[in-house]
Amino acid sequence: MSRTQRPPERVVVVGGGIIGVSTATHLQRGGASVVLVTEGELGDGASGRSLAWLNSAGTRSRDYHALRMAGIDRYRTLLAADPGRDWLRFDGGLHWTAPGQRAQVEDRHRHEVAHGYDSWPAGPREAGARVPGVDPAAIPEIAVHNPGEGWVSLPHLIEHLVGEFTRLGGEVVRQAGRASVVARDSAAHGVTTTAGHRFDADVVVVACGAATPSVVAEHGVHIPDRSPLSMLVLTEPARTRVRAVLNTPRVAMRPHPGGAYALDHSWYEDRIVESAGGCTIDESVVKELVAEASHVLAGDEELSAASWKLGRKPIPGDGEPVFGELTELPGCVVAFTHSGATLGLVAGELLSHEILSGARHPMLAAFRPERFRR
C-alpha cells in the first residue's frame, strides 16, 4: 500500500466469492470496519462452480508455487482445528493424460519432484491401488499420484467465514447490483452500486472474479483477461467412493459432501452459449461429461447429474494472480486469480496485512497489477 498515515478505519470489499469473503474476514479480525458487497448472493459466481482442487501441481513459476503451497498450509491449519469437516479434505490427487502422452506425464512428475512436491509415477494397477475406486483400465499408460493434494467445497467455506465475519461485526450487503469504485482526488474513496447503494471507505478491495478487469477499466486501468466460459456439474450420490481429486483427459472430478461428485473440464467450453440473460448449454453435453466420469470409476458405476452451473472462470491474461493496490488509483486494491480456491485463505490474509499495515508483503511482489504497465 502507498499509505503512510494510520491504518484504514473503513474498508469496502466488492465480491462475495472466496477471495472477497476471506479478505473481508481477515480485515475484520484485524480491527477494520468492513462492508462486504456482493452483486447477487454470496458464492453465486465462480466460487459456486469451482472444482476447488487444492494443489500446486504441474509447471509453475517459483513465486507462484510458493504462494500456492502457503495457501495449502492455511487449509491444513483450518482442517486441523476440526478434522471432521466433510467439506475440506486432503486425500490426494491423481492425474493422467490421453494415450501416447506418457512423456508429458513424466515431464510433469520430474518438474514436481524438482521443487519438492510430493509426486509419484504409477502404472494403471498401482494407481488403482493408491486411489481405490478408480478403474485401472481407464489409465492408458501412467499416472502421477500427488498424496498431499486436497479439495474444498467453497460454498461451505464461505458460509463458515461469513459466520465469523458477521460475529465480529462485519456487514454483508447482498443483491447490491454491479459495483463501481468512486474516485476523488485521483484516489478511491468508496463504492456505488446499481441497486442504489453508496459506501464511503478509506480502502476499496475489488475481488469480483471475472468482472474485476471491467470494474477497474472504468478508471483507465488495464488488466488482461482471458476468463473462459466454464461449467461445474454436481452428481447425485454415488455408490463408488473415490476420495482423491482426479484429473483425466475428459473429466476432472472430486468428492462432494453427501457422497456426490463435482465435475468439470475444458473440452466443452465452445459449446456454452453466453447471452445477456446468462449462460446455457445443451443437456446432452452435461450427460456426456457425467458419462466420462462414470467411465473412470470402478464397479460399473452410472452417475447422474443433480445440477449444473455455468459462467466465467476468472483467469488473468498471463495466467498468474493479480494482487495489490493500483498505482493509478491509490486506495483501490485488486484481487484477480484463477487459483481462487487454493489461494483463498492466504490471499485474504496477505492482502489484509498490506491494507492494515501499509507495507507490501514480499510474497505478493511478483503479482502486482503494475506489471502490465511495464
TrEMBL record:
Matching InterPro entries: FAD-dep_OxRdtase, FAD/NAD-bd_sf
Keywords from the named record: Oxidoreductase
GO molecular function: oxidoreductase activity
Protein name (record): Glycine/D-amino acid oxidase-like deaminating enzyme
FAD dependent oxidoreductase domain mapped to chain residues: 10-352
Keyword Oxidoreductase: yes
Gene3D superfamilies documented for this protein: D-Amino Acid Oxidase, subunit A, domain 2 (3.30.9.10), FAD/NAD(P)-binding domain (3.50.50.60)
Keyword Oxidoreductase: yes
GO CC, any one term: cytoplasm
